[in-house]
Each structure stands twice: as C-alpha cells, then as structure tokens.
Amino acid sequence: MSLLSLSRNELKELLSDQPKYRIDQIWKGVYEQHLRPSEITTLPKQLREQLGQDPRFNLQGEEVEVLQADGGKTIKTLTRFSDGREVESVLMRYESRVTLCVSSQAGCAMGCVFCATGQAGFFRHLSADEILEQVFLAARRAKDLYDSRLSNLVFMGMGEPLANYDNVIEAVAKINFEFSIAARHITVSTVGIVPGILKLAENPMQISLAVSLHAANDELRTRLVPINARYPLDDLVASLDAYRERSNRRISFEWAMMADINDHDSDAFELAEIAKRVKAHVNLIPLNPTPLFPTPGTELDRVYEFRDLLVDSGVNATVRMTRGNQIAAACGQLSTQVKVRRSSRGEDKDLQAT
Ligand code: SF4
Predict the structure, then answer these.
(1) Any idea what DSSP says for residue 52?
(2) pLDDT at 351 > cutoff 50
(3) What tens digit of pLDDT does each residue of 163-217 get?
(4) Is residue 314 helix, strand or coil?
(5) pLDDT digit string (tens) for 92-131?
(6) Active site residues
(7) Gap between the Cα atoms of 48 and 28, Å rounded
(8) Environment class of residue 55 by beta-carbon count within 10 Å: exposed (0-12), middle (13-18) or buried (19+)?
(9) Backbone φ/ψ region at 331: left (φ over 0), alpha (ψ -120 to 50), beta
(10) Rounded mean pLDDT of 65-84?
(11) Structure confidence at residue 290 (pLDDT)
C-alpha cells in the first residue's frame, strides 16, 4: 500500500483519529497541488512528520535520472520502484498543452524490432499506483517548471498498455477523476492487441485510441511488429471497425518512418486504404534508430512526400517530430543507456530480462 493506491475512504480509515477536514486537506494537497503529505503546510507539523515517516503515505518510486532537452521543453525521467525496476516517462511542453508520455510495464514482451524497450525484454506489469506515480511526479514538475497543469497523457512509454489492461484502466479512471485530466486527452496506444481493443470499445470513458501500425501488409508488419502474427491486419482492422461502431471515438495510426522499409509509395497506398476504412488520422514520425536496429529514420523531404500521398488519397495525416533526440527520446533508450553505463561500473548484475 502506498499513497496513490489509497482511496479517500481508505485514507479516512487509516487516519480515523483525524477530523474530516484533515482528510480533505490531504486529498486536495496530493491531487490538486501534487504535494506529498509531509509537504502540506496546512497540516500540523507533528502530523506532517508522522505521515512523512510512514510508507503508506508516501510514493514507492523515486526518480533516479532526469534529463532535459529542447531548452527544458522536453524532460525525460527514469523512475525506480521498490524492486529495482525502472521505467521512463517523458514530459513535453507545447504551446497550448503539457503532455506526459507514460509507461505501463517495466520492459515489454511485444518485441517490436525497432524499439529499445522491446529489444530489452519484459520484466513485469506496472501496478495502477506505479502508473499514477509517474503522473504525480510529472504534474508536480509541470507546475514547478512551467507554471502549468499537466493537460494530456499518452500511454506510449515502455510497455503495451492493453497487455496490462486492468491496471491501466484503473489508473486512467483516477487520472481522469482525481488529476482532472479529461478522458479525451488521455490516449492509450496499442500495437494491436485485438481482445484489448474490443474491451476498450465497451469502456464508457472517452479515452482516445492510437494504433502503432508501422506497416499495412502482413508480411512487413509481422517482420517489424511480431504480435501481428497472432493478430493479423484483417483481425486488427475488424476490431477497429467494431471499436468505432461501439464507441464512436476517433482512432489514430502511428507510423514510425524507417528509411527504405515502410516509406515507399506502395506503403502509403496500402496505409491509405486501411486509414480510410476506419477513418483514422495518421501520425508520421521519423524513426529514432536504436542499437539493434540502426536503420535511420526517413529523410524529412520524403516524410512530407509520403504525407502528401496520404492526403491526396483522402487521409488526414500529420508529420510529428520526435522530441529530445539528444536525451535518448525514443522509448527504452534512456533505460538502455543507463544500464550500459552501470554495467560498465559493475552494477545492476541482478536485473535481467525474461
Ligand atoms: S514499440 Fe511499444 S509495444 Fe513495441 S516493443 Fe516497444 S514498447 Fe513494446
């Protein structure tokens, strides 16, 4: 049990000797001001000290690396939990919003060949409160650094969110109700876990769905995204049809552009066909190369040509630039770099991927 896993009733029970308004002060302090209970100055000093020493009123994770890029507009953190597992989160400040890219698992079992997290393997699911701790720490940083509230959240960090469905949905509900981030500003990204998409279609929260497609024919997609062998494109597209029908919510496709792999005209036409069928918006992102997949991202001129092919075929498409290249911005890269650094110092020997 830790601070963000507590419901308001559980907090009340644990502090049954305190008046009701103290519980309100703590709840407001944590979820509106993003303070640890020991930092809430409206509480008496003795109570603050007592709460500060009790793990049930504290976070279980601690930030062990914090890197900045883009003049402080991109901040990547590595959070370590009590068992030593570490996950990445990226805070990004834009003109009109502050977005957090959050992790849902320590590692990932999906094995996408171009992804540093996939290359490192799967360790475990994150609990709902471990997901919430990333949000708490980022909301606190957005307030301190940008004098702004955290407005958007994308589950595009380490892990496949729909493989950890229950914990992700539990966290999303609290992010929505307690951190006051609108559900439509929360995007769950999947590599194409069909049963998870169908389950999400039944969920009443207006969460956005992004599908990391990267290829629009089974041969190439299975090569890049091995889970495609279990959920091939026909099944995936049928689940997206069902998702749209049930939820009436918008879908987006993520397409990491890899030089001479998925950036041919034929790729654009195949993608356009699927995108039009499920009315998806396409985001094109030049790939960040990783040590085991050194293919460079598509040159920018070609990315725009590819976008134009999609637009001419009747698809809404946007080119998105990766943030923070100088701080290993792509998912799993910071964690990998830190591990390499530590292992060269003889640390981290007990943490191996499964
Ligand atoms: S791209 Fe996403 S789903 Fe694929 S291995 Fe990386 S973290 Fe997992």
Answers:
(1) H
(2) no
(3) 999 999 999 999 999 999 999 999 999 999 999 999 999 999 999 999 999 999 9
(4) coil
(5) 999 999 999 999 999 999 999 999 999 889 999 999 999 9
(6) 88, 331
(7) 15
(8) exposed
(9) beta
(10) 94
(11) 86
For residue 291, the CA-to-ligand 1 centroid distance in Å is: 15
Kindly state the percentage of the chain with pLDDT values over 90: 86
- Domains within the chain, CATH numbers bracketed: 7-56 (1.10.150), 60-344 (3.20.20.70)
Amino acid occupying residue 268 = A
Question: What residues are in contact with ligand 1 under a 6 Å CB criterion?
Answer: 108, 110-112, 115, 117-118, 158-160, 191, 212, 331
Q: At 107, is the secondary structure helix, strand, or coil?
A: strand
pLDDT in tens, 319-346: 998 776 666 556 666 666 666 566 666 5
Helix (H, G, I), strand (E, B) or coil at 91: strand
| Nearest to 86, CA basis, from 48, 142, 59, 124 | 124
* Cβ-based burial of 73 (10 A; exposed 0-12, middle 13-18, buried ≥19): middle
Tokens of 300: 């920018």
C-alpha distances in angstroms, 334 versus 134, 144, 231, 327? 16, 23, 30, 7
What is each CA distance from 39 to 44, 153, 296, 323, in whole angstroms? 11, 25, 46, 32
Tokens 């989160």, residue?
A: 89
Rounded (10°) angle between helices 194-202 and 165-177: 40
Question: In a mutational test of the pocket of ligand 1, which residue from 88, 101, 110, 287 has the highest number of ligand atoms less than 8 Å from its CB?
Answer: 110
Q: Look up tokens 């024919």; give the residue.
A: 217
**pLDDT reading at 57 higher than 70:** yes
DSSP strands (E only) in 151-302? 152-155, 186-190, 208-212, 251-257, 281-286
Q: Is the pLDDT of residue 6 over 50?
A: yes
Amino acid letter at 135? V
- How buried is residue 64: exposed, middle or buried, by Cβ count under 10 Å (0-12/13-18/19+)? exposed
Element (H, E) at 312: helix 300-312
Closest CA to 99 of 186, 162, 161: 186
